[in-house]
């Protein structure tokens, strides 16, 4: 792989066909990458190529197409492991995304770990996908869900976290980067404190993997989940990584074809990992597209891309803060390129609609973090999120449009 050592966002933008789109007669300004990242041509072509030249089911076929598709599919498993610093590809489970990955672990803990009186620890800034599965697990087992608070800047209260950890804690499940606030959590310290009490930790990496290099071995986590569509891959595909000892201990999440060794009416034996957790025909094209996404990202100067994003974040924060009546929700000192904001009493949906008229795509709503926004006393925010393919013109268009909007509403 030839890695580009100097990051050039102008060249990178040409890799993404959709960025040449016009919206309502205006050039597209895409500022919704926290929801989904756009796809480079290499990923689009890889999916097209699979359906044109390799379309077949995997693992069980003995013909050429099946062998080709299986080889490409399994090569992506190794790429996924490398992408997050894992050493054993068999510890990589393909899922439909972060949500299914968390649900898989929640199901396993419900079936084989949690008992009445046990505690599950999450934070106030979790996505609904890292809240609801644990609520259901607690309801089924009699376990107790406990929540670590955040301060007014959106920073996790580490003293409260340490105080909440106890011998009753059976799992800590924490977001790496907040999708609403952009806060980067100190997950390595979180894991160290949990492991001191022999408590396993699941890290939701849906928002960290698009921006930074991740090394699960260095972090020390027990489980790590992320979504393909947020790292330039297709929708409907994701990755769960878990330590072998945990994955071997947990029961299957779903059952059916391809996850079995032998089926008899008297009983069934299951495959070893990763097969045990991959029942049925998987999203083969999605996995192949994800492999192309890993190749694409690995070919970039990722440290340069991150620095570019941080420069965009700095410029956008400074210019947005200068707008009279604008309030940023989430001002942690360590942030990814996400800005949630409000302007006067203008509803976030009106902000989003006004910006869309100018070809600017942002997100407006609760961002699947209703408890977090409730903590800040707001039902919704407008959210602009930047990726490495954005430029400073995008920032300028956003700021100019918001100034026009203030004049329109006022």
Key phrases:
Aspartate Aminotransferase, domain 1, Aspartate Aminotransferase, domain 2, 410 residues, alpha/beta, 14 helices, seven-stranded mixed sheet
CATH topology of the largest domain: Aspartate Aminotransferase, domain 2
Helicity range: 25-40%
Q: Per DSSP, what share of the residues sits in E-state strands of 2 or more residues?
A: 15-25%
* Overall tally of structural domains: 2
Helix-strand makeup class: alpha/beta
Class of the largest domain, according to the CATH hierarchy? Answer: Alpha Beta
Annotated CATH architecture of the largest domain: 3-Layer(aba) Sandwich
Radius of gyration from CA coordinates? 22 Å
Multimeric state of these chains?
single chain
Describe this structure in words.
A hairpin with a 2-residue loop joins strand 1 (22-23) and strand 2. Strands 4-10-9-8-7-5-6 form a 7-stranded mixed β-sheet, with helices on both faces. Strands 13-14-17-16 form a 4-stranded antiparallel β-sheet, covered by helices on one side. 45% of the residues are buried. It has 410 residues and is of the alpha/beta class. It has helices spanning 9-13, 41-54, 64-83, 98-112, 132-141, 158-164, 187-195, 216-219, 244-249, 284-298, 302-321, 348-357, 370-375, 392-409; strands spanning 22-23, 26-27, 29-30, 92-95, 119-123, 144-148, 169-175, 201-204, 223-227, 238-242, 260-264, 267-270, 326-329, 338-343, 360-361, 363-365, 381-385. The chain contains 14 helices and 17 strands. It is globular, with a radius of gyration of 22 Å. The chain folds into 2 domains: 9-37 and 301-409, Aspartate Aminotransferase, domain 1 (Alpha-Beta Complex), CATH 3.90.1150.10; 45-298, 3-Layer(aba) Sandwich (Aspartate Aminotransferase, domain 2).
């Amino acid at each position: 792989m030839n890695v580009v050592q100097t990051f050039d966002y102008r060249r990178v933008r040409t890799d993404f066909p959709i960025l040449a789109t016009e919206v309502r007669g205006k050039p597209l300004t895409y500022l919704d990458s926290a929801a989904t990242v756009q796809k480079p041509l290499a990923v689009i072509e890889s999916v097209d190529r699979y359906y044109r030249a390799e379309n077949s089911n995997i693992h069980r076929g003995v013909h050429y197409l099946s062998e080709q598709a299986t080889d490409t599919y399994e090569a992506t498993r190794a790429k996924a492991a490398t992408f997050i610093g894992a050493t054993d590809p068999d510890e990589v489970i393909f899922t439909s995304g972060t949500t299914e990955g968390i649900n898989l672990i929640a199901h396993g803990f419900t079936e084989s770990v949690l008992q009445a009186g046990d505690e599950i620890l999450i934070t106030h800034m979790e996505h609904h996908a890292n809240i609801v599965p644990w609520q259901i697990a607690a309801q089924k087992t009699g376990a107790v869900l406990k929540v670590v608070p955040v301060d007014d800047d959106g920073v996790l209260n580490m003293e409260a976290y340490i105080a909440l950890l106890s011998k009753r804690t059976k799992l800590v499940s924490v977001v790496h980067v907040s999708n609403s606030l952009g806060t980067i959590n100190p997950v390595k310290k979180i894991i160290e404190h949990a492991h001191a009490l022999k408590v396993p930790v699941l890290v939701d990496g849906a928002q960290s993997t698009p921006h930074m290099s991740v090394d699960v071995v260095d972090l020390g986590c027990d489980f790590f989940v992320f979504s393909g569509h947020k790292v330039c891959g297709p929708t409907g595909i994701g990755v769960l990584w878990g330590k072998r000892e945990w994955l071997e201990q947990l029961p299957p999440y779903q059952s059916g074809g391809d996850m079995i060794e032998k089926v008899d009416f008297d009983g069934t034996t299951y495959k070893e990992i990763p097969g045990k957790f991959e029942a049925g025909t998987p999203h083969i094209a999605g996995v192949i597209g994800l492999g192309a996404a890993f190749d694409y990202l690995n070919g970039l100067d990722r440290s340069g891309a991150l620095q570019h994003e941080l420069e965009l974040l700095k410029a956008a924060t400074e210019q947005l803060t200068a707008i009279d009546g604008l309030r940023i929700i989430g001002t942690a000192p360590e942030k990814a390129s996400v800005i949630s904001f409000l302007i006067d009493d203008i509803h976030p949906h009106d902000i989003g609609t006004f910006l869309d008229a100018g070809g600017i795509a942002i997100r407006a709503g609760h961002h699947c973090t209703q408890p977090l926004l409730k903590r800040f006393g707001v039902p919704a925010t407008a959210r602009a999120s930047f990726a490495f393919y954005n430029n400073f013109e995008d920032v300028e268009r956003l700021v100019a449009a918001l100034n026009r909007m203030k004049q329109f509403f006022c």
